[in-house]
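Protocol step 4 of 5: obtain the predicted structure for the target chain.
Materials: sequence only (see below). No template structures provided, no constraints applied. The aim of this step is simply to have a reference model before the mutagenesis design in step 5. Sequence pasted as it appears in the construct record:
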Amino acid sequence: MVDVLLDLPIRASLERVFQAVSTAEGLDTWWTKQARGTPQLGAEYELGFGPGYDWRARVIRFTPNREIEFEMSAADADWTGTRVGIQLEPREHGTWLRFHHTGWPTANEHYRVSSNCWAQYLRVLRRSLEHGESVCYENRLDV
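Step 4 output (structure tokens):
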């Protein structure tokens, strides 16, 4: 199995970053097109990415303002069963974000594309929190 691991600083409070990575409204600003779910352990999230991409995930780790991890329960074959998580640490000038997407079956083409997409999505997250930028869903991988 292979994993995607990314770390980045964000010049925003830990609370603001956690809201952006754990609430449906926050996820819709940088990752999903239409999410539904409640940030709490065991919660089921609907992760909408457009027609034919209505995926599901369950919160398997949750510590308010510190950590959230989703296990993908309904997605394409490569993503189903993988885990997407974020851990946050306060830093002097903001928050340190540690991202992981673990459990990929192989380092196939989809893994390689997704690795790049995650880096781009996290950049959109950081720019949103630091500068108030808003990027419509369809353009997020072009910025």
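Step 4 remarks: The CA atoms of residues 13 and 75 lie 32 Å apart. The chain has three helices and seven strands.
Proceed to step 5.
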